[in-house]
Amino acid sequence: MRRGADSQCRAFQEAITILGRPWTALILNVLQAGPLRFSELSEQARGPGDKVLSARLKELELRGLIRRSVDPGPPVKVSYELSESGRAFEAVAVAIESWGRTLVPEAVRPKRR
Question: Is 80 helix (H, G, I), strand (E, B) or coil?
């Protein structure tokens, strides 16, 4: 039994480590709509600078959450899309948002129309 709990804790901690990196959840969320070129991703993310965005994309690619595709052109076109593992983040994001709504006091929640 102990072995399963340790494995569960390691898996949970790995997920938290990935999501704890600045801008990671935003990047994964933006890419849910489909493949984007770097400039499109940067425009839609509206937060991280190009240097940080580039570094985060490399990390996510190394972890197998996104795929980088290069069309040799001319001009050369580089695009990013979620892998199957990256697409699974959508369910996680929905669950975290739902839980977060229970944590935010009613006074600071945006009013619904």
Answer: strand
Query: Is 17 buried (19+), middle (13-18) or exposed (0-12) by CB count in 10 A?
Result: exposed
* Residue 32: half-sphere exposure toward Cβ, Cα within 13 Å: 14
CA atoms of 38 and 51, how far apart (whole Å): 11
Note if the pTM is more than 0.90.
no
Q: Spell out the domains of the chain, with CATH numbers in brackets.
A: 22-104 (1.10.10.10)
In the chain, which ranges are continuous DSSP H helix? Answer: 2-20, 24-30, 38-45, 50-62, 84-87, 89-103
pLDDT in tens, 10-19: 888 999 999 9
SS3 78: strand
